[in-house]
Amino acid sequence: MAKRIDVTDLNVYYGDFKAVEGVTMTVEPRSVTAFIGPSGCGKSTFLRTLNRMHEVIPGGRVEGKVMLDDQDLYAASMDPVRVRRTVGMVFQRPNPFPTMSIYDNVAAGLRLNGVRGKSTLDGIVEESLKGANLWNEVKDRLGKPGAGLSGGQQQRLCIARAIAVQPQVLLMDEPCSALDPISTLAIEDLINELKTSYTIVIVTHNMQQAARVSDRTAFFNLRATGEPGRLVEIDDTTRIFNNPSQKQTEDYISGRFG
Amino acid sequence: MSTVTGVSAADELPGPDGRKPLTGDRASTGRLGDRLFGGAATLSGVIVIAMVSLIAVFLLAQALPALTNNSENFLTSRVWAPGGEKPAFGILEFLWTTVAASTIAMLLAVPVGVAVALFLTQYAPMWMRKPAASLVDLLAAIPSIVYGLWGLMTFRAFVKPVEQFLQDNFGWFPLFAPTKITGGTIFFIGIVLAIMVLPIVTALSREVFDQTPVAHKEGALALGATRWEMIRTAVLPFGKPGVISASMLALGRALGETIAVTFLVSALSDGTDWTWSLFNGGETFASKIANNAAEFSNPSKTGAYIAAGLVLFVLTFVVNSIARIVIERRKAFTE
Asked: What are the TM regions of this chain, as residue ranges (chain B) (predicted)?
């Protein structure tokens, strides 16, 4: 299921503004890759280009190449809707659909994909909620509104919603930044379990989190405000945090800057 | 407490120690400014409630004597002879005309208005959104007499062939039965009303659709929703209470619209056979009252017209209540 991502020389623009410049990296399947870096360095922007969600923002476009195994995500024949069905995303703030029940939230993506039949849906919904470590907490109130859950539960609901459609890759944009420490821990445990079956990319502001959950870490930086963000280096997480090859990275992780 | 979207954060937040959500009293500090503003706000609220109650009392007080002297069934009779020794009047014709024309107006205006609002907020290119929205708002500002004139002089000719077609091909259906009316039929009035209320539906729907949180839209898109699927999963559910409120305002205007209808409608002469056809003429409550304002010579006669007005009042009230219930029922599912 999980796939490798190969990015070559990627530039991201919003209108005339170049937000990210010259990113080349490989994301390994069945592993967690963390993006760290100061605010405004383009890590979230770059993350969005991995499932073409940057196109939702007016003026968003890219130059360069993103390959998902042997599929070119930006080939002229590639439908962004299809890309997003293959590469799922979890956002910074939990965003369950407020008018839908817990069950319907998880089933939303399946229904979009044309999955019908109560028993099929029931099965996948249960499986996804179990996969997101939420089943035991909500199994007796699947018909209640998803917005009634706590923040951490809502975020796990969003993860269940994302994995219900069985994506190849799961992108997470600061998934714990709106959560308390206990909920954060629950999500981090979940990420550890999910990486056995998915390729996971996570943007985080929290370096301890990157150190805890990721196998590889990419450090992004920008020279000055208004300049495009760039990838400084990507390496095994232990190396990045103990013996980075770039001075900038060392300054950032040791708290001397950023 | 319900906003135009039917959503209010304050409704949901529990107060400290599980108390009720924040109320006016808890928030009050007892300072002069607070007391002044609180007093002014309370006064305004009381005035509104008092006004509505007093209007109801006025209508009832004026209508009741006339109703007790009425020798016909008020609700089921078509006779309208409120003057004289033995007043006889019933509202069936006005009720039917009002409800039928307004229903046609809503059936046309709500889907089209929602579609226009969706186009303006979700599909139209950025440069087009603001100017097009102002244009729609401008439509709402056109005085109804202008709609009446335009309907009479220009629009009638376009609707006539449609009516003819429906009569020729679907005449077997009671609502489309052929009639000899050539002027303003119920069908025609309904269409003119639809155009009049369309901007109201559009402007308010546009406003709520525009407020759909980006997070909800992105959530749908990230699941691989197409634009239309995103609208169905995120925008429409979020906007639904707003669209219902908008439709109610529009319906209120359609039910009560006077000038354009008075101008256009073909009143039926006494003794015309009753049909359910939409191609019949007939008066609405508002046009009947407006057309006969000069006749309010004695209390019994006036009372008959006021009784008709009372029915319109109740009709609007019932429709609004139903809308409220629909919105409240889904409240648990809004943030």
From this structure: 36-61, 94-120, 132-153, 181-201, 250-269, 304-327
Judged by phi (left if over 0) then psi (alpha if -120 to 50, else beta), residue A226 lies in: left
How is domain B91-334 classified at the CATH fold level?
A: MetI-like fold (1.10.3720)
pTM over 0.95, yes/no: no
Q: What is the DSSP letter of B152?
A: I
Beta-carbon count within 10 A of B63 CB = 21
Separation between Cα atoms, residue A162 and residue A171, nearest integer Å? 10
Which of A195, A180, A128, A188 has its CA nearest to residue A158?
A128
- Boundaries of every domain in chain B: 91-334
What Rg value do the Cα atoms of chain A yield, rounded?
A: 18
With beta carbons under 8 A apart, name residues in chain A contacting B126.
58
Chain A residues with CB under 8 Å of B122 CB are none
Residue ranges and CATH numbers for the domains of chain A are 5-96+168-253 (3.40.50.300)
- Residue B223 per-residue DSSP state: T
Residues B217, A56: C-beta atoms closer than 8 Å: yes
Whether B18 and chain A come into contact, CB under 8 Å, resolves to no
Give A-chain residues touching B333 at CB under 8 angstroms: 98-101, 145, 147
Smallest CA–CA distance from A161 into chain B, residue? B223
User: Predicted ipTM?
Assistant: 0.89
